[in-house]
């Protein structure tokens, strides 16, 4: 249906650079999509700038204006979010806009693939995106002796866990199908697997429910029996991820573990600057580079735009434009094999140089 829509449809994307280098890495992603549109690999495109972020909060007193939420819910086919610099201390009236957006749009999955061009690493983290400690029910009390105690509620539900589990198995099947269809496949995987990441030996109630729900998801569909389910405690997962990264195919985790392990996985591929993600539900995807706002390099035109470009590719792939997405992945891989790379990868290229190199390689 994506192909049928090419001639007639206009796709509208919300653009939310938010903070820091978000403003520098979104324009290259937009230009890559525009290039594909001009070659008719994608339909006509419209990009709608939207406000969000800590910088906007400081100017306007709100981090995620109602108008942004309305447009995201009703007026766009997808969106690209940059990066946000939420302060690490409490600021009255401020709340992280990315966490809120995921909730408002029920973007229940955060999908973060990492791979190396030599095919030694090829894994994807499928992170539950709506609950766990990120429901942000925190409280601070003062005890009788005057000292403080802080508490946070961690919510794990059967429904959210089974939902993310089913998606993980679907992704494992899809990745296996893509591998089978490639004549020269450089992936380390010979069979599809889902690794269920938890800490149920200590948190037997919350992580215990997550673990059981992933098992139930595995049994919920006959097609999933083709996928091997492997259990892994989160701490030993981190150890093994650095020692034997080639083992891991699809890794499904509750929100906080997923956040941490997917940033760690970025170390396997050289830089956070190349790692993409989408926040997705079954009908909508919001692209988001995994890196943060990097205030130390903001405004210098040296931020790596590859994570943002790859995130845009994941978004259009999720929308059904697999061929256009594959073209972007190939172009990026070609650029990464050369020496035109930004300082995070040891090179001297600027953001603009990398954007131009990707456009040339498309
Ligand atoms: N694009 C990922 C990103 O912005 N990471 C920083 C982050 O997660 N910050 C959390 C927040 O500021 O709320």
UniProtKB/TrEMBL annotation:
An example Gene Ontology molecular-function term: isocitrate dehydrogenase (NAD+) activity
Record's keyword annotation contains tRNA processing: no
The Isopropylmalate dehydrogenase-like domain, residue ranges: 12-358
Annotated PROSITE patterns: IDH_IMDH
InterPro entries xref list: IsoCit/isopropylmalate_DH_CS, IsoPropMal-DH-like_dom
GO CC aspect terms: mitochondrion
This protein's name: Putative homoisocitrate dehydrogenase
PANTHER family to which the protein is assigned, alphabetical: DECARBOXYLATING DEHYDROGENASES-ISOCITRATE, ISOPROPYLMALATE, TARTRATE (PTHR11835), HOMOISOCITRATE DEHYDROGENASE, MITOCHONDRIAL (PTHR11835:SF48)
UniProt-listed SMART domains: Iso_dh
SUPFAM superfamilies in the cross-refs: Isocitrate/Isopropylmalate dehydrogenase-like
Domain of life (superkingdom): Eukaryota
Signal peptide: none
Keyword annotations of the record: Magnesium
Pfam families xref list: Iso_dh
